[in-house]
Design brief:
- With 289 residues, the protein is an alpha/beta fold.
- Helix content is 63%, strand content 13%.
- The chain is built from 7 helices and 7 strands, in the order H-H-E-E-H-E-H-E-H-E-E-E-H-H.
- The strands form 2 sheets. A 5-stranded mixed beta sheet has the order 4-3-2-5-6, sandwiched between helices.
- Helix 1 packs antiparallel against helix 7 (213-288).
- It is elongated and about 110 Å long.
- It starts with a helix and ends with a helix.
């Protein structure tokens, strides 16, 4: 039977874990507060930039279609070189303690790549371990990004690899609110269907292109692609911070409940020990009478 000393030792250990969860929660909260504003503003900014890109293509749809025809594109148009393949990118993490958001995202990722011929890219040591456990024989490409401070070099390596694909599907956690993060699939497509350009041809926003339309479109494609990819990584990072706060708060509450139960058990043991001593004393007195 576990005695009072063992109960007290367990209470002390849980107290240390509770302190650790508070520290993790506070650090994640600081990271989230620091990045949330910029991520949400960039989300709006990139949406606006993408609208400008669409306006440019729509304003000169006929010219774009002529360029596409010269390049012998019949169904869609892009001005960068791609390999015609689709890649699925799983943005995970290097460490745990992010709640269940990474596992939920991974479940969707595995389901999709298991039923398709998409090539797989895994980001983060935790994601690599999950992938090897689920699909040990399926080829994949691995990249590692810091959980806290992502360097430009790390991000550039990832972007250089995925930019060659015709379509990129990024599986990541998305920040909705401080208490809600959801698994999300963000698709970045290299091509715009001809049908969409024809529909948009009646939009007549006036633009003057310098040096020429094709170079402007190449610049837009390159910059928007890289920016969208970087924004997606930042979105995932923000969501993971928020998820860690929730996970650590929940762990802290569970620890407190466990400590209360152990304290009650310790108190019962103390009362039982006191009762035994009292009975022993009374039985000793009866022997002398």
């Amino acid at each position: 039977m576990i005695g009072k000393k063992e109960k007290q030792k367990e209470i002390k250990e849980l107290g240390g874990f509770e302190t650790l969860t508070r520290a993790y929660s506070q650090i994640a909260s600081a990271h989230m507060k620091r990045t949330r504003g910029s991520v949400l503003l960039n989300r709006q900014f990139l949406a606006a930039i993408n609208d400008v890109f669409e306006d440019v293509r729509a304003s000169y749809a006929e010219e774009i279609l002529k360029l596409a025809n010269r390049r012998k594109h019949k169904e869609s148009v892009t001005f960068l070189s791609h390999n015609g393949k689709t890649v699925a990118v799983f943005l995970a993490a290097n460490t745990g303690l992010f709640g269940d958001i990474i596992q939920r995202t991974f479940n969707i990722f595995v389901k999709d790549i298991s039923t398709s011929n998409m090539e797989a890219v895994v980001v983060g040591r935790l994601g690599k371990a999950m992938y090897l456990n689920a699909l040990p024989d399926r080829p994949y490409t691995y990249f590692e990004l810091s959980d806290d401070n992502i360097s430009a070099d790390e991000l550039t390596q990832l972007i250089r690899h995925v930019v060659q694909y015709e379509e990129i599907r990024v599986y990541h956690a998305q920040f909705k609110t401080a208490i809600l993060q959801t698994p999300t699939i963000y698709t970045i497509s290299a091509e715009t269907p001809m049908s969409e350009l024809r529909v948009k041809a009646d939009r007549q926003a006036p633009y003057i292109f310098e040096p020429n339309l094709e170079k402007i479109l190449v610049f837009f494609e390159e910059e928007i692609f890289a920016s969208l990819m970087e924004q997606t990584v930042r979105e995932s990072q923000l969501a993971k911070y928020a998820s860690r706060i929730l996970a650590m708060d929940k762990a802290s509450e569970n620890i407190k409940k466990k400590v209360r139960l152990l304290s009650l058990e310790k108190l019962r043991l103390s009362h039982a020990e006191a009762d035994r001593k009292q009975l022993h004393a009374l039985s000793g007195m009866s022997l002398w009478n």
